[in-house]
Amino acid sequence: MRKCGVFFCAVWTVLLLFPVFRSEAQIGLRVEMSQLHYLQYEPVYVRVTMRNLSGHSLAFGENEKLRGKLRFEIGAPHSGGFSLLLNQETPPVKGIILQPGTSRSFTYNVGKYYDVRRLGSYTLKAIISHPQLKTAYESNTTQFTVVKGTDIWKTTAGVPKYLLQRLPGAIPTRQYRIVSYNTGRHFLYILLIEDKDRIYLVRRLGLDLGTNLRPQCAVDDLSRLNLLIAASPKVFAYYQYDINGHLEKKEVRIKTTTTPRLVANRDIGTVVLDGGRPARRDMDYEEIKDLPFMAQAMGGGDRDITEGKSIIDEKDDD
Question: Per the domain annotation, does 72 fall within a domain?
């Protein structure tokens, strides 16, 4: 199994519904996935909601009497067993204080703690324990699927010689791939940079807006990947990534009398961004952090997101 490098993560609307808790329960626990399907190697986000029904405050801390623990029980596909912890680290709960009758929600990337890289369907539930609780409590069980997606573009690029000289024995090529997959609500484009041993980058690029607005891709003479992604029919995001998945350039442009496009000069090996004009943040488009469970994060009701919200984020992948 290849080890994962840098991940990018996602943003989705989820309706919070509390179950009817039994009167004798001391804590209510509920889990919700950010989406139904996840691409292999991307983060798998779950929201855990805890509700204190005990009648007294419940604090999670370092002291032995406060040292609670949260863990997930994840049914692995095709095996009949459970996904294993990647190491001894478990989802953090230290510092959480629940007042009587209150609830709080926390989001975790379960892929940071458990092996969920295998393709197929999983089940997941959370289990919480605490010295002040009479017993451990389980959440509802939810499901998610890890899928392969469909390649819409891919190419192989050589690692520049100056980098190979620094890394003797390194694999001399990388593969760039743009993959489309269905989250259960939207079709998304994902960028993967990989070789046969390692995943360097998994990054969400934006919504699949149809054949006419597919990503434009070109590799320059330094093996950098240049991407132009339609965030809407009018707004386009340009990214340049190096061979290891580090973001080197980013620019957002809006369509005018000309449409933004990539222009490649094969004779000298350059790729330049042409057309349109620089877009104004918070006027022509809205910048969004790529976090799960944000209400209407991809635009309300699947409307045109030209002046709305899209996956155009500022974060580098270092």
Answer: yes
Residue 8 · residue 317 · CB < 8 Å: yes
pLDDT in tens, the chain (318 residues): 555 544 333 333 333 333 433 335 689 999 999 899 999 999 999 999 999 998 888 888 888 778 889 999 999 998 778 998 888 888 888 888 889 999 999 989 999 999 999 999 999 999 999 888 889 999 999 999 999 999 999 999 999 988 888 877 889 999 999 999 999 988 999 999 999 999 999 999 988 998 899 999 999 999 999 999 998 899 999 999 999 999 999 999 999 999 999 999 988 999 999 999 998 888 887 765 544 443 333 333 322 222 233 334 434 444
Whether residue 111 is found in the same domain as residue 72 = yes
Helix (H) or strand (E) holding 165: helix 161-166
Contact predicate 182/191, CB 8 Å: no
Give the structural domain span for 161: 150-302
Question: Which residues is 272 bridged to in the sheet?
Answer: 263
Residue 29, Cβ neighbours under 10 Å: how many? 22
Residues paired with 122 in a beta bridge? 144
Q: Which CATH number do you get for residue 31?
A: 2.60.40.10
pTM above 0.85, yes or no: no
User: Are 162 and 290 found together in one domain?
Assistant: yes
- Asked if residue 32 belongs to a domain, the reply is yes
